[in-house]
Design brief:
two-stranded antiparallel ribbon; globular; 24 helices; mainly alpha; about 5% strand
């Protein structure tokens, strides 16, 4: 019988929130305060599914007992990683001025001292690695034999182990991208008793991830086939993350090619073509549907996802993920104190919005009307086309909301009504109008939107970038994205076009910082955005050391062997 993993995940998220602590990492990925690993796993499938699900749940855990944070929102990995990727760039600013972490990310002024978001990314990613390692220890052949696990279940567990190895690689990717060199361990490493894993170089962790993903994606591996069981990882997920690693290979290794002399661009290109060869993925014809409340059930949206984190508004309540992206994008008094008419969720935190400069640069809105009042009784079509208060040629630009806002954030960084809000993540199902969904939305407190971790739109743009230097044509892929957006396809692919197109296509999906670093734009004095580098609205260049975050001082205090990233004094 095929299990509904989304709802198993929902149940275990609750368990994670209640039981996860750092001490658990040395024993079992279940609640070992009340059970042993042998009784938790046993000889039946349920224990192994629950253990695997807890590894998946590290993306969405709101637990605060194992982190030094103020609230659950600062503990959830999707939200915290997203914050380091988007708020620190031209794509987003956050209005919670009383939070020191927000001030640091807005202005790129973080230090090694405690910043809730940066610290949480560091701890959560490495916790995820530790949980994965422990699951792999608990599912070794010798342990399965001792528990009397059947041959049929052993075969299933082999697939579970492959998924776990992918998840470990994903956690390591997040860590190496943000911090560079981090502690490294596998299921074969010593653990417990105060053991501190040695710090590995960024290049070494990159190479480990590449080797793991290549093995998992290979024909005959135990990794489930592409699109085998959404939203769980599969061979398509492995290839998608591999393509992302390869396109960033020069940044992560400092070299132009791998040990065999093959360039990172060529490897990225080859990997994208392997994804296309699977024949399992397709571009969703409606861009907005990718981010609506039923995207996990909508086959057309789901067929674009190579990997996603599932959220359910009832079963997986979270202060992070897509609930954060829907609620923080609106204010409680939007639409005449009916914000659910915008985002399908009853509430508005008034936290995150987009600088006008970003919207103008990449979406070129016209006929902007900041004062237009739609009467707070708009239809879905009015809200997301013309009556947003502006016009755009690119359909992807209809995600913004400006009514009753002010244009510039100058001198108003911490006033939510300045700048544009983004309604990209929206809990209203793709096939329902706001009016049809109003009775549900009016009582909803959490979003139903699954978060796309890897999707085909990103792969198309990786392919276009790789073809620039590796040769070949991405005209078909570029046209597919352009046709969906309702614009003319670009024929001259340049770095500047990629910077802009990724800003449009992957808006607020957690890619922006990584992209700008790869293109040499993140610290550049020639690529500025509001408040970059300090209090000056015009922005200024950053020291190159800002391409990485500081390893949190608290972690170095607990492990003095950790070497701090250059440029950060404690």
């Amino acid at each position: 019988m095929k299990m509904n993993f989304k709802y198993i995940f929902s149940a275990v998220v609750v368990s994670v929130m209640a039981t996860a602590c750092i001490g658990d990492l040395d024993t079992t990925p279940l609640d070992d305060r009340t059970v042993t690993s042998e009784s938790a796993y046993g000889a039946e499938e349920a224990g192994y599914v629950q253990g695997l699900t807890k590894v998946y749940a590290q993306f969405a855990s709101n637990n605060t007992k194992d982190l030094i944070v103020d609230d659950g929102g600062s503990s959830e990995l999707i939200r915290t990683f997203w914050s380091t990727q988007e708020i620190t760039t031209d794509a987003c600013k956050v209005g919670w001025g009383n939070d020191s972490w927000a001030q640091d990310l807005n202005r790129n002024t973080w230090t090694a001292q405690h910043n809730h978001m940066i610290y949480s990314v560091y701890v959560r990613t490495l916790q995820g690695v530790a949980y994965a390692n422990e699951y792999l220890r608990q599912t070794e052949d010798s342990r399965l034999e001792l528990r009397g696990v059947s041959d049929d279940l052993k075969a299933k567990i082999a697939g579970f182990r492959a998924e776990t190895r992918f998840l470990r690689a994903y956690f390591y990717w997040m860590a190496l991208d943000t911090f560079g060199s981090v502690p490294f361990s596998t299921e074969n490493s010593p653990f417990g008793g105060g053991y501190n894993p040695p710090q590995a170089s960024r290049a070494d962790i990159f190479n480990f991830c590449v080797e793991e993903l290549e093995a998992l994606a290979a024909e005959g591996s135990d990794m489930p086939a592409a699109q085998a069981n959404y939203p769980r990882a599969d061979k398509g997920s492995c290839l998608g993350l591999l393509a992302r690693l390869y396109i960033n290979g020069k940044v992560y290794t400092g070299t132009e090619s791998n040990a065999a002399g093959k360039t990172w661009s060529q490897l990225a290109k080859d990997t994208c073509e392997r994804i296309y060869g699977l024949g399992k993925y397709s571009i969703c014809p409606d861009y907005a549907a990718l981010f609506r409340g039923d995207n996990g059930e909508n086959v057309q949206a789901r067929n674009e996802f190579l990997f996603a984190v599932a959220y359910d508004g009832i079963k997986t309540k979270s202060y992070g993920g897509t609930t954060f992206l829907t609620l923080a994008s609106t204010a409680s008094d939007d639409c005449g104190k009916q914000p659910w008419r915008l985002n399908g969720v009853n509430g508005g935190w008034g936290g995150i919005r987009v600088p006008y400069e970003y919207v103008e640069k990449y979406f070129a809105p016209t006929d902007i009307d900041y004062t237009y009042d739609p009467g707070y009784a708009t239809t879905t079509q009015e809200l997301y086309t013309r009556n947003n208060g502006y016009k755009v040629a690119d359909k992807r630009g209809s995600m913004f909301y400006i009514l009753k806002r002010e244009q510039s954030m100058k001198d108003h960084l911490y006033d939510f009504l300045y700048g544009w809000t983004c309604l990209k993540f929206n809990s209203v199902p793709h096939d329902k109008t706001i009016e049809e969904y109003a009775s549900v939305a009016g009582t909803a407190t959490n979003a139903d939107v699954d978060f796309p971790m890897i999707r085909l739109g990103e792969i198309h743009l990786i392919y276009a970038e790789a073809c620039m230097t590796a040769g070949g044509s991405a005209a078909e892929q570029i046209k597919a994205l352009a046709d969906r957006a309702g614009i003319k396809a670009e024929t001259n692919v340049t770095i500047d076009w990629l910077v802009a197109e990724r800003a449009r296509e992957l808006m607020w999906e957690g890619h922006r910082r990584t992209d700008l670093v790869r293109y040499g734009k993140y610290t550049s004095k020639d690529f500025l955005w509001p408040y970059k580098g300090g209090d000056d609205y015009a922005g200024k260049g950053l020291d190159a050391t800002r391409n990485l975050f500081a390893i949190p001082a608290t972690e170095r205090a607990s492990n003095p062997d950790l070497k701090q990233n250059p440029g950060y004094e404690e």
